[in-house]
Amino acid sequence: MSTTATVVLVVAIAIVAIIVVGIVAVMASRRRREASHRAEAAKLRDTAHDAKLAAKQHEVDAAQAEAAAKQAEIDAQRLRDEATQRQGAAQDAHSEATRRSERAARIDPDADTPHPDGPTR
């Protein structure tokens, strides 16, 4: 083999080697990029999952708050009804006391009994 042929052969082998190294480098770079993208996608999925869990917890909290508000409305209505009944009972008691005082005054008008609203005379 002549020197020129040997040089051409060495140059050809070198060019093929450079091309192979270039292809391997490109493939390695692509694999690293894909791995990086996979890792980023996994982080995004985890964050999305956490956000969904937080949203569901907020929905549960909102439902509990709404139930508590409805219960408070029911309790408030019950207390209003109870207050109305007690006011009615108080009014009845005042009426009964007034009726008895008036009856006592009719039975014995000269008796000096203290009246709950003040003196009778």
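The above is record 1. Record 2 follows with the same two-line structure.
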Amino acid sequence: MMSRLIFGWIIFCTLAPARADETPTEIECEFGPAPIETFESGRDLILMLPEEATAELLSEGRYYAPPGMLPAPFCPGLIQALVIFDLPRSRVMRLLSETQHQSEYLHHADEMHPVLRSEEESIVHYELKILFTRVRYRLHYRFLPAESRIWWQLNSEYDNDLEAVRGYWNFYSLETTDPGSAEEVGGGESGEGARTLAIYGTRVNVGTALPQRMQDSITRKKMKQSIQETREWINAQQGA
């Protein structure tokens, strides 16, 4: 079944060239309950970026970071992005923690629904069809409001069709319209800024049959689609 899954991904995705000897390694990522990055605010994070990255982030509302640019946990092959949401940090995190709404904005799967949900965690079941193969997997999300963070991995108690998946969101209050100015924007909750800057990171391993460079190319393409869908949905909740 895995060979048909791989064939389907190659057909439907634009892939970067890969060497035959690039085999994926087992994911050993230092994801856990401790904070990954430490910034006082989104403004501090933006000020550490190169000028070109800052311009694209402020213009487009997202920036897909090259490897090594952003602070990160140890996780070989981790792919990262920066995203600006037009809502306060606590509300963005609350909306993304409501995993029962994922089907409203994520369209990479034919079916997705929570099988467990609480204030601290959620397990979501996903199914998608690629050619003649039905792919099933479950992600276990952890919600850490005190750290302004969400992180996830495959649910180890389920027989997943993917080898490994890891990911996280880190949220920072964005208090200024222009990171180079001192102008503050109101509208946040409990002193928060009116907007949120988030770091998104993900790492996917479909198995040893697909070269790692191909896997990373597929992951990056799917990440861009998911981030765009997520950002549009979150921003549309301003009047909700």
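The two ends are 43 Å apart (CA to CA).
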